[in-house]
């Protein structure tokens, strides 16, 4: 019998004490570790790859993501590479394998714990779903793994996970993370007697590197209507933490004392630069006037966002006064706020009068915002609900906007259809480059036609609840020249001839990048729409909800996705017994030649592992191609693998975004970097360097018979030869002493 691995044996002895439900004895845990070691080694990965302290680049794990993800995917866990080279993120999502491979779950859970406990390169944890960790027997493993991942910097949780797990255990595990920099949570469970609030306050006060905190909603549903529980020390903890630069917090639970401490924190914080406040009740203790007073005396604040607040006349002028006085704020956003700005009985406070002679022309609802445009010279972005009354007032507002060159972006929320037609006309007459975003439903087809004539519509939601309206509304889409995001929801049965109008739009559009199609149709209608999708050349995100259920439509959709050179993300949510199997079977057979699809999201539980595994392998390969290409272009890694990836997907627009992230450059600079690298590969010396044939340039000895060598080949001839030569054609010879001596001789 071979001697036992000491490192694995020590780890296996710890597992039964951690979670007896997972493995009852150390021998069983050791056997599973040996199985994992064998499985990974067969796929070219190493279970015992070490992460050396102080150097994340020495870890082998970033080069073995595909092999590890095949095992971790069983429990809904995936490893992804972060922007910084060498750092990894662990993403937990809803597993679709658990019902079919339950006997493999404990082994994958063990690998998850091993990963977080032994690899310092894991610096981010994102819980998009609970996966198997929603089960009671696996929670202990999860909390212990988080506590042992001492280099964790970013922690994000979704509501699905928090409602299935204990926040108290999470906060206890977080206490042992010395390098935590970011905590993001959309809904925070305050717990029984609000004990979790006190625990969160302890985390905030003790984490000296925490620069971002986002709690969008404190879940106090049983108490929200009767009293405010307070933040239980969170505001005091914020005062003691001087590292926070980005704060998003729900102020609904704050008491008057909390508001006083919080306002003091805004004034005195030397590092707070971005502040987002959310209010989920009608009358919060923290008013907009209080916020404006604190912002006026803030030291570093440059971005302010208020969500769902009530803004009356005094509050609007208080914001205008504070921004004018602070002279630092560059961005102000009022999102879903209720504006109630009326003409006061008296003249506004001194210093708030409008310059010039246009004071009487500006509507009272717009005066605070026009004052901001004219007096806050640092302002770059402004967003607020539009509340004007007549076209004349609108024209004055847009004329004021057109004269302010310092403001880069102004966005408003259009909630009233009655004045939208006049608004679009005024925008056109004023000559401003304002982009009108329409997210509402327009039942009047004539009104819809006028809107498309004057406005630049970029997002649209189309609802069809009457069969007679289907053709007309689908044809209106042909007039949307700038539409980038479209959601189509059909609640009635439509025929193939009615769907042809939508198919024509899908074929003709050149700007649409994201589409969601949600309805139930017959097979013939599905084929009409799929035919339109097959001729589309712009869609990058495709979301299918409730259709393509027949075998024929499923196969056709799979062929469309596999052959597309644009679709990056696919969501397929259909659950009708065995019918979706045709889609997954065809996708698994044909996906191998696709190099553009990067993600697949599905709620179908009837897809067996043998069908879905090949798909996720290809997705992992495509993501690795993108990463290798971006590394090669940005100069982080000069290797033949990166050069081959660039040669293969060099024209993919996704590379530009990835290079921007890695190199922190703008779009034009990223495009120039890609163009330069591609040009180097077209050159003979650059090609040979990338292929590993030469170190600097091609040099050939003179031939005895006088024939020219490769170095003397004219550039035109080389470029002709280069059309038929690829980097993958250059095969590396196995290393040997004879090979080395031959290279020196040549």
UniProtKB/TrEMBL annotation:
Q: Which InterPro entries match?
A: LRR-containing_regulator, LRR_dom_sf
Which controlled-vocabulary keywords does the entry list? Repeat
Which species?
A: Amblyomma americanum (Lone star tick)
Higher taxonomy: Eukaryota, Metazoa, Ecdysozoa, Arthropoda, Chelicerata
Q: Which domain of life is it from?
A: Eukaryota
Please identify the protein, giving its name as recorded: Ran gtpase-activating protein
rRNA-binding listed as a keyword? no
Q: Does this entry carry the keyword Mitochondrion?
A: no
